[in-house]
Design a protein that fits this description.
heterodimer, A: 21 helices, 3 strands, 76% helix, globular, B: mainly alpha, two-stranded antiparallel ribbon
């Protein structure tokens, strides 16, 4: 145990950040790419190692705990890192998607590549920090650290309407983040723990549960703030616009991982600390998510002509399932949400990657101007179809288990909403398969034929295949062996039921 | 007679304790002497001499930080040595150092006399330091007037430019009005308190402690309450709080860039140093009146500052109006300080982060302003990131910190203020503050967009010919700006250096 696993966890978060700093200080480009590659790979390796070592419980269901003081000890703020059963799968997800996005970015040929890599590394470090933080202040802090590079990347390397998209993203997400920060501070003040440490907060609230109405308004603040960040209908409009404009690696990391911050916060913070508050909002949340995110956004997704916008809308729609799973307020529902978060993170990142690869070949995102690409690029088509299948929850992919468990949990909550959610699967099958068909099958459009004649398309090369394979392998692995996620999650949720009873309906 | 005087000086601690202020005054006089007796070519040492004086003073103040007698009164109660007073000294010295640095960029290009500028900056700094330690309304007023008169001169320092003169005149007229309000308040307090004899010593209504005792015994005295509110009104002018913010945009725009920075940072901080002393020690018994008044002031200031900054295209006006909103956030901290004992530390923390971020931004503004110190529209920042990536990065960090974006220091300042507000149960103000922060993202973002996001897009056909790239900073400029930016970033991650000192 030398260095100890807790130090390895710190190292995993520090590596990308330090690498970003070194590159920003003016490292030559040749070394920069090598250093960046190492800094993307190291956290993934460490995450795998920690996952293999996982049930090394230090205290309160957390493993690999370490505490560093930054000078706000008086306010109960310290950089406390550690992983529990819910954080571990998310940490693993962040490491894998980060590696894939990093590998894709390294060879993407973006202009001003060094700045791009610096921002991506900062984002990666922030993402790892989000899920490794036990202190809810640093949980928020790392989220912002990852969020800021997103704005800059959209603004600098974005596609159409990038300035507008960057501004809308900034304003929506800052507003959401400020609201959730207010909720977290309210929790800190009202709990009387004088600490942002989640473990101490849990202890304090287990000793003195918060009054019902206090729970209700704090949970309302958190739902509003986190809901904006996770694109809860009708606060979702930033997402399709932002993802439509974002460069591929930023979209992969944001839609795949960073967006889960809000859901993760609801599961880790709101569920154990504010059970009554969430119960109060459960029906309202379920209706918004079920009717708004799943049905309305589902139909909107079907009407999209732009491939990237469609992916953006579809990710908004899938977040609806996650909210439904949380609204079910049961252990199995929450477990399903964690599974679906991991699965959706992998599949949406893969889809954004492939969409960019498609764009490299067709020079358009317009679905009407595509077709017949499968004959020219069979590997790309295979990957895309597989990713689409994963997205709509075909058994064998990780998404299946997540959606299944959420539906099971939802049945107890409300059979009618379960019917809506299942109808959503049909909707997502329609738009997913139709998009795959339009891009890859049928006769190519005239515009496309002209483009293809000028630039004969090559199939996926290794720089695209490697990250895609990584993501697909992870999807299949979790699809055939969901226990890898469900076991630590069960462990964490089972222990929680003993501390604060989550009320069942 | 003279030996007696010298003896009394040597015996008393009073003069030693005022060493920093006396050093600055001595340095200021030395500059004038140099201007008279020195050869013309010696004048180039003037900025260095001023900076040296400030630096030496800063070192001695920081070195002797723990050695002051807490609560010791000097000169028969005119001045009281306190820890917040020491913090204020450090703040003003640091700020003036950076103002002198900005002046070395801007003034040589503007063909204006230099000696007087540095002389006035030193005198004003000394007066600011005295103001923050005043314990007597006469001392308070005299120090405040010294500061204000210095600023009248500095604001209209470009005496051949109509904008600068107009700014000076506006500042003079409105400043005189605010002085009159302040004086009226002081007189009302004096009249209400009268003369009190305690244990054979006569006290009067000018002494902070006497006023406090009076208010403590009679918190519903109408005359004294009116006086206290008028005094606060006079101070609100300094910090640019609603409804005394009308002078801010025009004066900020007309003043030379270093003076704008001086106004934005030191003058504002002086207002808050005074406000904290007054609210916490002198007017504390009036909490029932003060909390609603200050809350209303904070809310309107935040909203008005942010909303009026939304449409600005001129960066100096933008800094001025966004500075108004920062004053609003700080007023939340002042309001909270009535009930939360550590809130003043949070206010000072915010002020220090504001100093670093503002000075970074003003540094970039000084370079972008160009040889005639007029390039101050947002359009002038286009292509900055491509032509001067270093200045672009400094601007991004500075503006980001002002907007309160983590992981920069400005966010930590806002966080501490919000925590204090939560503990003081000022929930309504928190909502207003969050709305204000979200609005402010819009205009700060516009600045970043001008400097970065449009940098690489081709110019529109028929656009005006590009301005020449701004001059690059020399090594002193690079080192200073890099230090300021580094401090802003490091304080975002690691607050120990400031918190161990401000929030023990």
């Amino acid at each position: 145990m030398n260095p100890s696993n807790a130090q390895l966890l710190q190292l995993a978060i520090a590596t990308p950040l330090v690498a970003a700093l070194i590159i920003a200080c003016g490292l030559p480009k040749r070394f920069s790419t090598k250093l960046a590659a190492a800094a993307f790979a190291a956290p993934a390796l460490i995450a795998l190692w920690l996952w293999s070592r996982f049930p090394a419980v230090d205290a309160h269901q957390y493993s690999f705990l370490s505490t560093t003081y930054t000078g706000l000890g008086n306010f109960g703020i310290s950089l406390k890192l550690g992983l529990n059963g819910i954080a571990l799968p998310m940490f693993l997800l962040a490491a894998i998607v980060g590696l894939a996005a990093g590998l894709y970015a390294l060879r993407s040929g973006a202009e001003r590549l060094k700045l791009y890599l610096v921002l991506l590394l900062v984002m990666h470090g922030g993402l790892l920090g989000v899920f490794a933080s036990v202190d809810i202040f640093f949980f928020y802090f790392f989220h912002e650290l990852a969020l800021i590079p997103t704005f800059i990347m959209v603004g600098l390397w974005g596609g159409r309407d990038r300035s507008y998209a960057a501004m809308k993203l900034t304003i929506y997400l800052t507003a959401g983040a400020m609201l959730s920060l207010l909720g977290l501070i309210a929790l800190y003040v009202k709990s009387g723990a004088n600490s942002f440490d989640l473990i101490e907060l849990k202890d304090a609230i287990a000793a003195h549960a918060l009054a019902g109405h206090t729970q209700v308004w704090i949970a309302g603040l958190l739902l509003l703030g986190f809901g904006t960040l996770v694109s809860l209908w009708p606060l979702h409009t930033w997402a399709p616009l932002g993802y439509g404009a974002a460069p591929s690696s930023a979209a992969m990391l944001h839609a795949g991982v960073l967006k889960k911050f809000g859901l993760y916060g609801l599961i880790q913070v709101a569920l154990p600390l504010l059970p009554l508050g969430l119960q109060h909002w459960a029906w309202k949340l379920a209706l918004l998510a079920g009717l708004g995110n799943v049905l309305v956004v589902g139909f909107v997704t079907m009407a999209q002509r732009d491939l990237k916008q469609m992916l953006g809308y579809s990710s908004v729609m899938h977040m609806g399932y996650c909210f439904l799973g949380i609204a079910a307020l049961s252990t199995i529902g929450t477990g399903g949400v964690v599974l679906l978060m991991v699965a959706h993170g992998l599949s949406v990142a893969l889809l954004f990657l492939l969409a960019t690869s498609v764009h490299h070949r067709t020079h358009t995102f317009d679905l009407a101007e595509m077709g017949g690409l499968a004959r020219r690029t069979p590997v790309l088509a295979a990957f895309f179809v597989a990713a689409t299948m994963a997205g709509l929850g075909l058994p064998g992919f990780a998404n299946f288990w997540g959606e299944l468990t959420i539906f099971v949990a939802l049945w107890k909550f409300s059979p009618a909403l379960t019917a809506v959610a299942v109808a959503g699967v049909v909707i997502s099958a329609i738009y997913g398969l139709r998009a795959a068909a339009r891009v890859f099958f049928g006769p190519p459009s005239e515009a496309l034929q002209r483009v293809l004649a000028q630039h004969p398309p090559a199939d996926l090369d290794w720089r695209e295949k490697l990250p895609a394979l990584l993501l697909l392998a992870a999807l299949l692995f979790f699809g055939f062996y969901p226990k890898a996620v469900s076991q630590p999650v069960d462990q964490a949720l089972g222990a929680r039921a003993a501390v604060v009873a989550v009320p069942h309906r | 007679m003279s030996t007696e005087l010298l003896k009394s000086i040597a015996d008393s601690n009073d003069w030693w304790a005022l060493g920093p202020e006396l050093t600055l005054a001595g340095g200021a006089l030395a500059l004038l002497v140099l201007a008279i007796v020195g050869a013309k070519k010696d004048l180039r040492f003037v900025p260095a001499l001023a900076i040296f004086t400030l630096f030496i003073t800063l070192v001695t103040v920081v070195g002797g930080f723990d050695r002051i007698g807490e609560g010791e009164q000097l000169f028969g109660g005119l001045i009281r040595l306190t820890v917040p007073g020491q913090i204020a000294r450090v703040f003003f010295l640091l700020s003036s150092l950076l103002v002198c640095f900005l002046a070395t960029i801007c003034l040589p290009r503007a063909r204006v006399p230099r000696v007087e500028f540095y002389h006035i900056v030193l005198v004003v700094t000394a007066a600011l330091m005295l103001l923050a330690q005043a314990n007597h309304f006469v001392m308070f007023f005299v120090a405040l007037e010294t500061v204000t008169i210095g600023f009248y001169i500095l604001v209209s320092y470009y005496r051949e430019r109509s904008l600068s003169l107009e700014a000076g005149l506006k500042y003079l007229v409105l400043g005189a009005l605010s002085s009159a309000i302040l004086l009226f308040g002081i007189v009302l307090l004096y009249g209400a308190v009268g003369r009190v004899e305690v244990a054979g010593v006569v006290h009067n209504g000018f002494e902070f402690q006497t006023v406090y005792n009076f208010l403590h015994g009679d918190p519903h005295n109408f005359l004294a309450t009116a006086g206290a509110l008028l005094v606060l009104g006079g101070v609100a002018f300094k910090i640019g709080a609603f409804p005394f913010q009308v002078w801010v945009p025009d004066v900020y725009q007309g003043a030379p860039t270093p003076v704008t920075a001086f106004l934005a940072v030191s003058s504002k901080a002086a207002g808050f140093a005074v406000l904290l002393t007054l609210v916490r020690t002198v007017f504390a018994p009036l909490a029932g009146v003060l909390v609603p008044v200050l809350s209303l002031l904070a809310a309107t200031t935040i909203l008005l500052g942010n909303l009026s900054a939304l449409t600005q295209r001129n960066t100096k006006r933008l800094m001025g109006l966004s500075g108004v909103s920062h004053a609003g956030y700080l007023l939340i901290g002042v309001t909270a300080s009535l009930t939360v004992p550590w809130a003043p530390g949070a206010v000072w923390f915010y002020l220090f982060t504001y100093l670093l971020a503002s000075m970074a931004v003003f540094g970039v503004m000084a370079y972008v302003a160009g040889p005639d110190d007029t390039g101050e529209e947002l359009d002038h920042y286009e292509r900055l990131a491509r032509e001067r990536p270093f200045l672009g990065a400094v601007l991004a960090v500075g503006v980001g910190s002002l907007a309160g974006i983590p992981p920069l220091a400005g966010f930590m300042g806002k966080l501490l203020l919000f925590l204090a507000a939560f503990q003081a149960r000022l929930y309504g103000l928190l909502v207003v503050a969050v709305i204000g922060v979200v609005i402010s993202i819009f205009y700060y973002f516009g600045w970043i967009r001008a400097a970065w996001f449009e940098s690489w897009s081709p110019p529109a056909p028929g656009a005006a010919p590009a301005r020449p790239a701004p001059a690059g900073p020399n090594w002193v400029g690079v080192a200073t700006l890099a230090a300021v930016v580094l401090a802003t970033v490091v304080l975002g991650f690691f607050q120990q250096p400031l918190t161990s000192w401000l929030l023990p």
